[in-house]
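C-alpha cells please, single chain.
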Amino acid sequence: YTYFDVTEEKSAQRDLTEREELLNSILSASENGILVTNGFNEIVNHNNKAIKLLGFTQEDFSKLTDYQNLLKRQFELKLYTRLVESEADFETFITDAMKFTEEATQRPRNYHLVDGTIVRYRVRPLDNGHYVHSYIDITAEKQREKEIELARQKAEELATIQSASSDAMVQGILFFQNRKLKYFNPKFIELVGVPIERISANMTMEEV
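Here you go.
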C-alpha cells in the first residue's frame, strides 16, 4: 500500500473553488459588463451584461472563443455605428485593438452600438496574466451632458436677449439683489446724469 498526504492539495483545490465562486458572484452582481481573457486572448469568463454591451446575442457570443474573433464578429454583424468602413480599415483596427489590450492602458475608449447605446470600454491587467475588460453603459450620462450644454446655451442666449432689450428701453433700469446693485442699463445713466464711473456693481441702494 502507498499513502500520500493530500491535505495541501485538497486545501488548494478548496481555495480555488472558493475564489471561482466569489468571482462568479461578483460577475453576476455587477451592473457593468465584465469580460476576462488570458495571456493567449482566450475568453475565460464573462457576465451577461458584457454580452449585451458588446452587442451580441447569447447565441452569437457562445460561438466565440477568443478576443480577436470577438472583434471580427462585431465587424461582420455591423454592431457599431462608429468603427470602420472597409476591410483595410478593419485590419488596422484589429491591430490597434489588440495592442490596446496588450498594453492594458488605463485610458478608456467610448464606442456606439447601432441601437444608440454608448459604451465606455477599459482593460486592466491582473497579476495572473489575465486581463479584465470592463464595459459601462454611459448613454444616460452623455444625454445629461448634452442637456446641460443645451441649457447653458439657452441661458446665454436669454441673457444676451435680455441685455439687448434692456439697453434699448426708454426706461432706466436698476437691479438689486440683497440690497446690492447687480445691473443697470445705459438709459439709467443718461436719465440721472451721473458719470458712469461713479456707478459700480455691489453698491448699496443708499450709495446709489
